Amino acid sequence: MAIRKIRIEGDPILNKISKDVTAMTGRNRELIDDMLDTMYEANGVGLAAPQVGILKRIVVIDVSENGDEPMVLINPVIVEQDGTQTGEEGCLSVPGKHGTVTRADHVICRALDENMKEREIEGTGLLARAIQHELDHLEGVIYTSKVEGEIKDNVEEEE
Ligand code: NI
User: Fold this and answer.
1) Is there a smaller number of Cβ atoms within 10 Å at the N or the C end of the chain?
2) How far is the CA of 24 from the centre of ligand 1 (A)?
3) Is residue 62 within 8 Å of residue 70, measured between CB atoms?
4) What distance in angstroms lies between residue 130's CA and the mean position of ligand 1's atoms?
5) Domains of the chain by residue range
6) How far apart are CA 41 and CA 37, in angstroms?
7) What CATH code would you report for 12-153?
């Protein structure tokens, strides 16, 4: 397990389309472990493989309060979505910034897990937002292209 370097907006790999995963190889397992380490280390709630420079359709998400509910989505597809939510969004590839994005409020996502078994994840609120945000990365789309109004700087809290 290792922390990988997170690519920052402007890196052309973030605008490329990722490829389907066809088999769970040792290399893919290592990538998933590293993506989870990298996401937790950066205090993120989600990370997509292109953000660490790998154009594979793999996403990790953990929206739990304690960061102990990792979710691995391989070749994910949103099969149902409805409602809308408008809220603040950020991205580990766009450090120190956030912006307002409108997303579906409820999604059903079909994907494979780390054992290449089919799974369905249903989410509302933050989980629905994270799924849509991370799946966008697999299409080369960063949330900044969907921001309503200005992209704002995060205000650093003094300690
Ligand atoms: Ni992101």
Assistant:
1) C
2) 24
3) yes
4) 9
5) 12-153
6) 6
7) 3.90.45.10
Of residues 30, 120, 122, 134, which has the active-site annotation?
134
| pLDDT tens per residue across span 7-27 | 999 999 999 999 999 999 999
159 is catalytic: no
> How many Å lie between the centroid of ligand 1 and the Cα of residue 40?
14
- Around ion ligand 1, residues with a beta carbon closer than 5 Å are 91
Q: Give the chain's length.
A: 159
CA of 44 to the centre of ligand 1 (A): 9
Confidence of residue 158 (pLDDT cuts 50, 70, 90): low
Residue 157: the pLDDT is 65
Other beta carbons within 10 angstroms of residue 23's beta carbon come to 7
- pTM for this predicted structure: 0.96
| Residue 118, strand partner residues | 112
DSSP 19: B
